[in-house]
C-alpha cells in the first residue's frame, strides 16, 4: 500500500515531468485512435466496393490490345450469342447483366447534330475508301434497366415509362423534340454492320439527359453524331437480340458477370476458355474503375498510417528519453528507498505504478477525444484526396483513344463514368479499443522497463555517498 500511496504522491511532486510524459502519451493514443478508426472504416468500404467492382467481370473483345500485338480487324473472332448465355450459367457466378449496342441507320427521323438536307443521308469515307452512309444512332439494349448508366442522376424519365415489353424503347428529349416524336410513335432502325436486321420500335418513354453529348473531343470533331448520347435509343436486351443476331459480329456486347467470390476470377476464366471463348477476348475485372473509386480511400489510409507510424516512432523515442532522464533525476530517491530496505523489484513496481496511472488517464482521454475528432479529420483528409483525384480526372479528360471495329466503339478508359468514393463514416469499434489498450500498455512498458533497467544498476550506499 505504501508503494501505491508513494506513487500517487510522486505524480504530484513531479508534475512537470509527468505532465510531459502524459502529453506525449496522450498524443500517441489520440493519433492512434484517429488512424485506426479511419483505417478500419476505409478498409470496410474498400471491401464493399471490391465485392461489387471486384466481382464484376466483363467479357469483351479487346480491339485496342489486339492492335498493340499487331492484330487487325480481320483477326477478330466472334462469339455466338448463346455462348454468352452459357457463360452466365457458371457455378462461380451469382448474377449476370447482358448489355449490347449496335450502330443503326434510319431515314424516318433526324439525329441530333445531323445537318443534312434529308435525314440519314450524310455520308463518309470508310477505311476501304468507300463512300457509305453515316450511322444515325446507337440502339442500346440491357437485360436490367436499373443498371443503365446515369439514370437516376443525369438521366430521368420525363414522359411515359421505362420499356417493359418487346419492341418498346425510350428516347431522349432532344431527339423527340427535333423530330416531333411523342409517346406511342413508331421508329424504324436498321443495323449498320449486319445486313437484314431491322426494328420497328414503339416509343414508350422520353428521358431528360444532362450527360456530356460526346464522351470525348475526337467524336465531336469527326462528326460521329451516332455517338452523341442524345441519339441513344434504349430498349431491352431481348428486343435487341430478337432482331436476329446469331453472333456479336457487328454488335457491341458488354456482358457483366458477377462472381460469388472475387477470388474465383481465374477459375471462371479457365471455364469460359474451355467453353470456346477466343483468346482475343479479355476476362477481367474493371481494375481501372476500382482504382478510381477506391483511390482516395486508399490514399487516406496510406497517409494516416504513415502519420501514425511517425508519431509512434517519435513518441516512443521521446518517452524513452524522458523516462531515462526522470529515473536519473530520482536517483537519490531510489537510494533512500533501497536504504530503507525496499527491494529493487518493489522500487521498480512503484515506478511502474506511476507509469500505469499516467497511461490509464491518457488512455481514457485519448479514446474520448480521438473518437470525437476522428470523423472531422477523416472528412477533411478524404475531401482533399477526392479533390486531387477529380482534378486528375479533369486534366486527363475522357478516353484517350477510340477505336471503331466490327460495329464496336472501344476506348482505353475503362474507368469512365465511375467517380471516387467521397463519403466515409468512422466509429470507435471494440477491436480498435483493444488495439489502443495494447498500444498504451506497450508505451507504459517502454517507460517502465527503462526505469527498471536503470534501477537495477544502482547500489543504495553508493547513491547516498554521491549525494
Largest sheet, strands/sense/barrel: 6 strands, mixed, barrel
Strand order of the largest sheet: 3-6-11-8-10-9
Shape: elongated
Gyration radius, rounded: 34 Å
Count of domain modules: 2
- Distance between the ends: 28 Å
Mean pLDDT: 78
How many helices? The count is 13
Unreliable stretches, pLDDT < 50, 5 or more residues? 397-407, 409-413
Question: What is the ordering of alpha helices and beta strands?
Answer: HHEHHEEEEEEEHEEHEHEEHEHHHEEHH
Structural class: alpha+beta
Tell me the total number of β-strands: 16
Give a written overview of the molecule.
The structure is a single chain. With 467 residues, the chain is α+β, with helices and mostly antiparallel strands. The chain has two domains: 2-50 and 293-466, no CATH class; 55-285, no CATH class. The chain contains 13 helices and 16 strands. It has helices spanning 2-13, 15-52, 63-68, 81-87, 173-179, 217-221, 237-241, 265-274, 287-329, 331-339, 344-396, 430-457, 460-466; strands at residues 56-61, 93-97, 99-105, 123-125, 131-133, 137-142, 155-160, 168-172, 186-191, 198-209, 232-236, 252-253, 255-259, 281-285, 402-405, 408-411. The strands form four sheets. A six-stranded mixed β-barrel has the order 3-6-11-8-10-9. Strands 2-13-1-14 form a four-stranded antiparallel sheet, with helices on one face. The longest helix has 53 residues, at 344-396. The chain is elongated, with a radius of gyration of 34 Å. 34% of the residues are buried.
